[in-house]
Amino acid sequence: MSETRSIFSGAGAPHAEPDGASVQGPFASATPMVFAPALRERRFDVVVTRGGTVESRHRVHAAVVDANGTLLEGVRDPHTETWWRSCAKPFQVMPLVRAGGLERLGWGSSQLALACASHGGEPEHVALAESMLAGIGLEEGDLACGAHEPLASRGARLLRESGDRVTRLHNNCSGKHAAMLARAVLLGEPTTGYEQASHAVQRAAHETVATWAGMTPEQVRVAVDGCGVTVFSLPLANMALSYARLAHASTHGDETSRRIVHAMTTHPFLVGGSDRFDTRLMEAIGGNVLCKVGAEGVHTFAILDRGIGFALKVEDGSQRAQFVAVLAMLAEYGGLPSPLPESLRDAAVRAVRNTRGEQVGEVFVSVASLGAPVRNDAV
Fold first, then answer.
1. Which of 27, 35, 250, 304 is disulfide-compatible with 257, CB 3.0–4.6 A?
2. What is the DSSP track for 209-220?
3. In whole angstroms, what is the distance from residue 56 CA to residue 369 CA?
């Protein structure tokens, strides 16, 4: 267990901010982070077996960092730079929260959770996103994200049965987009083009991501995410640092951080959905792990009471390896209950089945090489 004293001091101490004040938070005065060598280094892969031998391997890169910026562990290359994707959502919504936007909008923790979500497009998600837009005088057509099928199987089934069309509200990022539109409205900025990197909403998100990740905005590359807004590229160690800082700040006086963490951990269904991994994980652990999926094999998470942040990238972007790796790393740091809840067991060691439903192999974390015989041992 790490120390519980605050790492904040001087000008960087948490403080209440009126609307229009700095949106960067308690680390605004910090210098860019330079990491010392990792205290521990190792390698592991997520392997896929058949007939007792390794048929496929997914290479994993990861970093474990505490709130002071100590690189506790590096898996393969903890400084691998990649696109952060949806893992950045808690920081993209920070400018809205820190400037008093929730109060002005009359929004609570449910709306905040959906703003941080990669939701499953279930009726509850769609209705909440629609109400968020209605509250600022906008509608589905104002969202810059495209329409796609619900990510949750329940959401897809209910949409099919209803005979309704897929809309932009079903997009897993519709809550984030609704919050960005709300920020534009409160700033008095145009809502058209809010997704562009040059817009005030995206510039503030860029600055906030850089600050919490221990970087300057110039060090954080920008591109276009799958949902149409800006996406940020940064090293895994800096991603992990941001989540470690968020975990620490949420329990040491930064009200914005506390509200974001509380919203996500108390409304896990809104963050994901009825069969979504982040939801199952946060429900099973009961509030001490903050977890956020990203596309292409990226995941960022934190053990809250220890102020430890994790970031991993499955090199080939495979989601079948991603969740297995997340659970293995949490287990290594005592972040999972024992015994593992039933809802997580199929994600910890996944079965490989043939078309008759027979189990013919497994997917799990191992150091075994391609073609080698293996035992089902986590590393």
1. 250
2. HHHHTTS-GGGS
3. 9
